[in-house]
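In the design runs reported in the main text, the only information available to the sequence generator was the tokenized backbone. The following block is the verbatim input for one such run; it is reproduced so that readers can re-run the procedure and compare outputs position by position.
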């Protein structure tokens, strides 16, 4: 039986640039690096950057993305820092909780989100998506 998400691996085209983005700008801890990759972390997240010169660096048209949690108090300063660094945004927030949708240097779609599954479900109970069903009691 699966117990949790183990790690995420992102293909990157310029390892030094990506390590700088995730370490300096997003403030993940750099745990290890080597010629072809790096391990970074946050509490509960192990992120592997893997050098892949064949990586396409244009964002896909789909909604696949990786969301990081952030507190409501830290959110405005985070958004200001990202915009000041010239980070590209890829979507406006359309759901519960404050969100900032942005791209990393290899156009991986990322999000900084205020809230969690409980707050999302509570909002959805108030305004459910079309065809939405709930499988537990509030």
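Verbatim output:
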């Amino acid at each position: 039986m699966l117990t949790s998400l183990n790690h995420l691996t992102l293909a990157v085209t310029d390892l030094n640039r990506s390590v700088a983005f995730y370490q300096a700008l997003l403030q993940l801890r750099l745990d290890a690096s080597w010629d072809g990759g790096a391990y970074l972390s946050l509490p509960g997240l192990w992120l592997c950057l893997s050098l892949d010169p064949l990586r396409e660096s244009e964002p896909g048209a789909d909604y696949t993305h990786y969301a990081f949690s952030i507190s409501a108090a830290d959110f405005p300063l985070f958004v200001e820092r990202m915009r000041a660094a010239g980070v590209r945004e890829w979507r406006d927030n359309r759901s519960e909780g404050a969100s900032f949708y942005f791209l990393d240097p290899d156009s991986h779609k990322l999000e900084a989100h205020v809230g969690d599954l409980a707050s999302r479900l509570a909002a959805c109970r108030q305004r459910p998506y079309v065809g939405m069903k709930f499988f537990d009691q509030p």
